[in-house]
Design brief:
The complex is a heterodimer of chains A (113) and B (110).
Chain A (H helix, E strand, L loop, with lengths): L4 E3 L2 E4 L5 E6 L6 E8 L3 E9 L2 E4 L8 E7 L2 E6 L8 E8 L7 E2 L3 E5 L1
Parallel strand pairs in A: 2-11
Antiparallel strand pairs in A: 1-3, 3-8, 4-5, 4-9, 5-6, 7-8, 9-10, 9-11
Chain B lengths: L2 E3 L3 E5 L4 E8 L5 E7 L6 E6 L3 E5 L2 E6 L4 E6 L8 E8 L6 E3 L3 E6 L1
Parallel strand pairs in B: 2-11
Antiparallel strand pairs in B: 1-3, 3-8, 4-5, 4-9, 6-7, 7-8, 9-10, 9-11
Classes of the chains: A mainly beta (113), B mainly beta (110).
Chain lengths: 113, 110
């Protein structure tokens, strides 16, 4: 049963700490998305990779956020330093392109206190 | 600017039919997605429309009118498990952006 796997599922951290979220996309997918979801803003695209190359990260605050794909089986999203306003659910999704179905992971619920 | 509008919340009765509308104003259009999201869970894909018209998939159908910037999701024979948020998203030309609506929370009553 192929699925996108995200770790950790929940993270509580203190303001100023570094947070790293990991995602294992579905094997064979060439596109990976990172999204953030809050009640106020809804679903926001943070970063978009195709064949491991970052194509769009315009939705991501560059001063504290970074997204990478060190290999085809791992995508990471880092926040350093974290702030309370970063509290949200972060979803990773993978697929075969922007115009096809995206498969979402279960998300990482981040709370920064 | 880029904008997608959906009703915030709708209520319907089990067994009935409901139509969830989505209107969009975007810089370019390459298709429109509908996703379902149950509370506390990840979004799951329902449909993708690129051309005008109605596409049917079992109890769910999705309609698109590109000239009107309008889509709707039609749910028939509603079941309690259809209680969820329904998200509309537009695939634009601009910087690979996928623009998401805020979602419509659908409440099904017995």
């Amino acid at each position: 049963d192929a699925r996108v796997t995200q770790t950790p599922r929940h993270k509580v951290t203190e303001m100023g700490q570094e947070v790293t979220m990991r995602c294992q996309p579905i094997l064979g997918h060439n596109t990976v998305f990172w999204y953030r979801q809050t009640m106020m803003q809804g679903l926001e695209l943070l970063a978009y990779f195709r064949n491991r190359a970052p194509l769009d990260d315009s939705g991501m605050p560059k001063d504290r956020f970074s997204a990478e794909m060190p290999d085809a089986t791992l995508a990471t999203l880092k926040i350093q330093p974290s702030e309370p306003r970063d509290s949200a659910v972060y979803f990773c999704a993978s697929g075969w392109g922007r115009d096809t179905e995206a498969f979402f992971g279960q998300g990482t619920r981040l709370t920064v206190v | 600017g880029q904008n997608i509008d959906q009703p915030t919340e709708m209520t319907a009765t089990e067994g009935a039919i409901v139509q969830i509308n989505c209107t969009y104003q975007t810089s370019g259009f390459n298709g429109l997605f509908w996703y379902q999201q149950h509370a506390g869970e990840a979004p799951t894909f329902l449909s993708y429309n690129v051309l005008d018209g109605l596409e049917e998939k079992g109890r769910f159908s999705s309609f698109l009118s590109r000239s009107k910037g309008y889509s709707y999701l039609l749910l028939k024979e509603l079941q309690m498990k259809d209680s969820a948020s329904y998200l509309c998203a537009v695939n634009t030309d601009s910087n690979y952006q996928l623009i998401w609506g805020a979602g419509t929370k659908l409440i099904i009553k017995p």
